[in-house]
Amino acid sequence: MNKSLLGALLATSALAFGPAAPALAQAPAALPSQPSSGPMALSLSQAVHFAVQNKSSLQATRLAEQTAAARVGEIKAQGLPQLNVGANVADNFKLQKSLVDFGALAGPVLKGTTLTQADINKAQGGNPITLAPTYGDPVSVPPQPFAFGLQYAGNTSASFSQQIFDGSYLIGLKAAKVYTDLAKKQTQQAEIDVVEQVSKAYYSTLVARSRLALLARNVQRLDTVLYQTNQTFKAGFAEKLDVDRLRVQRNNLVVEQQKAQRLTELSVALLKFQMGLPQSQPVQLTDSLGAAVVDAGTLRRNLGAASFGTGGGATGLSSLPAAPTSAGQGTTGPPTPGINNGQPSQANAVFNYNNRIEFSTLQTQQALAGLDLRNRQAGAYPRLAFTAAYGFSGSAKTASDLFAFRGPTSTNSAGQLNQNWFGFGNVGLALNIPVFDGFRRRYQVQQARIAQQTLEKGFETLRQSIDLQDAQSRATLVNALDVLDNQKANLDLAADVARVTRIKFNAGVGSNLEVITAETSLREAQTNYYSAIYDVLVAKVDRDKATGELYTQAK
User: Fold this and answer.
1) In the chain, at which end, N or C, are there fewer CB atoms within 10 A of the end residue's CB?
2) Contact 487/535 with Cβ under 8 angstroms?
3) In 3D, which of 186, 144, 181 has the Cα closest to residue 58?
4) Cβ contacts of residue 138 below 8 Å, gap of 6+?
5) Do the beta carbons of residue 434 and residue 380 sit within 8 Å?
């Protein structure tokens, strides 16, 4: 639930009763176990730890972290040896044919030659003769279609490759760890948000329950006054108008109590939602509002904030201001309430931006952007890999003959070689040298540089944002503490006025209207005080988040 809805919830229900200056009280605690029956006991630390472990949105973020780890493994696997084994069988039911010039392959052919009687006589007499012509002209034959191969063919092979050098892969290995760190920091950011939400919801429930308990006491006290007034009326010493006024006051208070009860139930439902706890699971908050507060003076000193009294101390509200001195007299009177009076501002202190997970995340993104730039530039480097392959291929006229698997020593019944499967193998180096890619890599490098410059600009924006959040959270917390001091003083005064008014009324020297007015003022002071307590608690959570301490305290 967002901050505005929380504020609306508690502005209506009012908040809790406690000492001066609330702040987070994060103590290590074991995860609560879900009982089979009965309410689950929860301290603030246990609620935070349970949410960190069980909130569904956080579990989804952790799954994204596991995905990042798997992605890193995928990148690393590219540099490991790659081995593949394959086999296939094909039925070439229609063989591909090609035209072949068989006339060119045969060359000149012998043509018929006529022998004369003289040639025959010379031959019979043992004399050599010369036949003319011995060879005739080549036979003119047009190209003929011819099919290579047989109908059935198959092969099986194993290939191996090992990357020797690839600049992009080497940079990818460096980016793998950075990528994992980024995923972890994103998970931590989600955990911080959950800690903030659960803390505010827990405080909301504490304050709402305390307010509800106080309303019950107010109803009980008003019932007593109403009973006494009614008895006085029956005795003839009070008017019916006094009784009616008290009845109206009680009815309004009961309605307010009913509204506070519903809003308290809504606060508990909100806490369960922020924890990732089923709404059907009853819970029992073990922390009290008193355990969630710390000394206001210590908190002010840690903030370095000015007080009303001294402009720089930690005493909270000062006593009544003295009369101002006349202008130009040269005397120095008490400081004006609410004015810093030139005291050093804590905003000028050195702030460690690395405490903020957003700053650390941006640093990691910047590192990734630098590696991406180097990866684009490494695309111009040559790539070298070792390759090897070995396998067998075969063919036959029939499928059964193909699967006979006859090797180089196989012969038929006539003793002739009839091998139908033949082995092959090769080893080598594969070198790939990028020469020209149409300036594609150049524009990729340009984009990577622009992305890096954008992140650098983001650092300045983030620093300014953190500085503003630091100043805002400090100012908000100081203002909340001042308001709390004021409301505590008003509550004490209203309680004292109500007490004295009741004494006067019981003694017969005060009016019923004075009692009702005093009780109304007291309830208003109580409501304002509870609201101030919640504001301080929320402001302390926001302050811890702004300084990067919220996650540390939760851990």
Assistant:
1) C
2) no
3) 186
4) 103, 106, 107, 108, 109
5) yes
- Contact of 102 with 141, CB cutoff 8 Å: yes
Angle, nearest 10°, between helix axes 512-547 and 167-234? 170
DSSP annotation string for 491-511: HHHHHHHHHHHHHHHHTTSS-
* CA–CA distance, 202 with 194 (Å, rounded to integer): 12
Q: Assign 321 a pLDDT band (cuts: 50, 70, 90).
A: very low
Q: Are 358 and 546 in contact (CB under 8 A)?
A: no
Residue 554's contacts (CB-CB under 8 Å, 6 or more residues apart) are 26, 45, 48, 49, 52, 191, 195
CA distance 200 to 270: 10
Structure tokens at 386: 């070792």
Please, which residues bridge with residue 163 across strands? 385
Give CA–CA dist 270/204, Å, rounded.
9
Q: How many other C-beta atoms lie within 10 A of the C-beta of residue 24?
A: 23
pLDDT of residue 29: 45
pLDDT at 85 over 80: yes
The CA angle 10-11-17, to the nearest 5 degrees, is 65
Stretch (H or E) spanning 259: helix 240-275
DSSP 290-312: GGGEE-HHHHHHHHTPPPTTTSS
What are 120's two structure tokens?
């025959």
Span of 176-185, 290-299, 317-326, 398-407 with lowest mean pLDDT: 317-326
- Beta-bridge partner residues of 158: 85, 390
Q: With the CA atoms of 298, 299, 304 and 305 taken in that order, what torsion angle do they form, in degrees rounded to the nearest 10? A: -120
Peptide bond just before 133 cis, omega within 30 deg: yes
Kindly tell me if the per-residue pLDDT of 13 is higher than 90: no
Q: How far apart are CA 18 and CA 441, in angstroms?
A: 66
376, 445 Cβ separation under 8 angstroms = yes
Collapsed DSSP state (helix, strand, coil) of residue 481: helix
How far, in Å, CA of 502 to CA of 306, rounded?
A: 39
- Contact between 48 and 198 under an 8 Å Cβ cutoff? The reply is yes
